[in-house]
Please model this.
Amino acid sequence: MRVAAALIDLADTLVADFDPADFLYRVAEHCMDLLDIGDAGVMLALPGTGPLRLVATTSEQVRLVELFELDAREGPCFTAYHDAVPVDHTDLTTSRRWPEFSVRARGAGYLSVHASPILLRKETIGVLNLFRRVPGALSEADRHLARALADATAISLLQQTTLDHHRTLSAQLQGALDTRTVIEQAKGYLTSHHAIDPDTAFQRLRCHARHHQMRIADLAREVVEGTVALPFPPSTEEGRPHDGKTL
Model:
């Protein structure tokens, strides 16, 4: 039932105010909910132009690892994108294939990675990056489900229109990248002004946007511009850890 609900949610994109950035965060969250992983990230590239860019993550830790991978141009996610095949890095403590990536990912607490390409027919438009805190490969069931989630992501991005799909996809992905920038700015603003960590800042943005039925990009812009102030629990203001899942 959870798998069916996730696929239905990802298919429900034919709405006037479709937000690609929010959609891609939901993709990452569904990966976390359904698969035996510790964190997830989504990378996308504009068709035919590249480069591969990070657009959604489930934590600050995985965001930094993913950005390092793109900068170093090495790692299972980078390889899955260019080879258009799923890639497993089952033990970060022993593999020498991607030494710099392995050291960085291991330092963040990850011990294995599975990367599943997001395919648009014969073209790779991105990658689902699945990080685990234990060594070993994903189960066969999880591998198939990761493939299904990657396919659902590609289909949902395309079904916005029956017109020139490359032009439409490029606009959607560029919008997602632009939104990612303003969200990071809002996270930085909240982190510096409320003495909280980036993950807590993002959870507050997500919760406030959902509660008030706002697009997260619109809320992030208002936070950066200073036109809206998010309420924070006393424990958060004092800098103590706060579990975003309970908000």
